[in-house]
Amino acid sequence: MMDCSHTFSDAICSSGLEPPAPIIPGKLHRFPGIGKHSSNRAGWCLLFDDGCGGSFGDWSSGFTENWQAEYKQSFSREERAAFCRKVAAAKAATEAARLSQKRKAAVRAAEIWSRSTAAPYNHSYLLRKGTQPHGARLYHSALVLPVVRLDGSVRSLQFIADDGEKRLLTNGQKSGYSIPVNGLLYLEMVQPQQIVICEGWATGATLAEDEPDALVLAAIDAGNLKAVALSVRQQWPEVPITIAGDDDRLTQGNPGRTKATEAAIAVDGQVAFPQWPEGAPESLSDFNDLACWVKQQDTGSRS
User: Fold this and answer.
1) Please, which residues bridge with residue 65 across strands?
2) How many CB atoms lie within 10 A of CB 149?
3) Residue 163: is it exposed, middle or buried by C-beta count within 10 angstroms (0-12/13-18/19+)?
4) Whole-number Å distance between alpha carbons of 145 and 284
5) d(C-alpha 184, C-alpha 171), whole Å
6) Rounded distance, CA 267 to CA 257, Å?
7) How far apart are CA 109 and CA 68, in angstroms?
8) DSSP characters for the chain?
9) Rounded-to-integer distance, Cα 53 and Cα 66, Å
10) What pLDDT does 86 receive?
11) What CA–CA distance (Å, rounded) separates 290 from 292?
């Protein structure tokens, strides 16, 4: 058996991933995804038992790559067919591992959610954002928010620390799932009259307080807006959907506007963005930023 683990590792590194050392043939290795925290396990690699090939990728981005050791002579048809079978087996193994991790994370999320308590109105993050708890809970001093399917089952969690740092439960599912800002009561409704989908929870809290009769869902980030919108449209084909996008004026390409517009088009919905008053700093990007800034201006004018 050839030892090509070093060249395999080099190929992984060239993609932006940082694999562990040593890489053991036949073992599925997990490590941080591209640009992720050291505790993240979205990155993966599998070097085949014979050391002649392997696969690697990043579950968080959907990136997958197959690798084959270089030889002076070409593979025969039989050898190439064997390599393809190994690639297929590697994909099946990694997908099974990924789904297993997701299932375990969902169980963990439900356990944590059941043990958490109602968030106090004076939590520092809520005070800074000027919002009510809207069903948020408290877990080890951090706000904890449920990431759910439309059937109400908790699939993951988002934690927000006192200083505003956010993190998702390791291995939890996100794509197409959302945080119900109005709590879980909407699941008892036959059909909501209006649905608003935004990025962050604090933005959703601001929108929910302005539109108390609307179902407000936080998609967590811009990249998940379209997936959430499509899921909602499938559940409620006739309900009007508004995508309340961020306006990332200082970010190249303005991903908030771009992704929100794409999501609205995908579900034949409306799109809305903050309307900035004269003098509003360009660092402001979402509806909560706008509400907080306007409140500060009003407070300053009265003092």
Assistant:
1) 56
2) 16
3) exposed
4) 24
5) 23
6) 16
7) 39
8) ----HHHHHHHHHHTT----SSPPTT-EEEE--TT--TT---EEEEE-TTSSEEEEEETTTTEEEEEE---SSPPPHHHHHHHHHHHHHHHHHHHHHHHHHHHHHHHHHHHHHHH-EEPPTT-HHHHHHT---TT-EEETTEEEEEEE-TTS-EEEEEEE-TT--EEEPTT---TT-BEETTTTGGGG-S--S-EEEESSHHHHHHHHHH-TTSEEEE-SSGGGHHHHHHHHHHH-TTS-EEEE----TTSTT-HHHHHHHHHHHHTT-EEE---PPTT--TT--SHHHHHHHHHHHHHHHH-
9) 8
10) 77
11) 6
pLDDT mean for each 10 residues of the chain (303 residues): 76 92 88 86 87 85 83 64 76 78 91 96 96 95 94 93 92 92 62 93 96 94 96 94 97 96 98 95 96 85 57
Tokens 């959302």 locate to: 178
By residue count, the chain amounts to 303
Residue 302: its pLDDT value, please? 59
Which residue type occupies 34?
A: I
Q: What is the pLDDT of residue 1?
A: 46
HSE of 187, CA atoms in CB hemisphere, 13 A: 13
Q: Among 103, 217, 200, which Cα is nearest to 160's?
A: 200
Beta-carbon contacts of 183 under 8 Å, excluding residues fewer than 6 positions away, are 134, 135
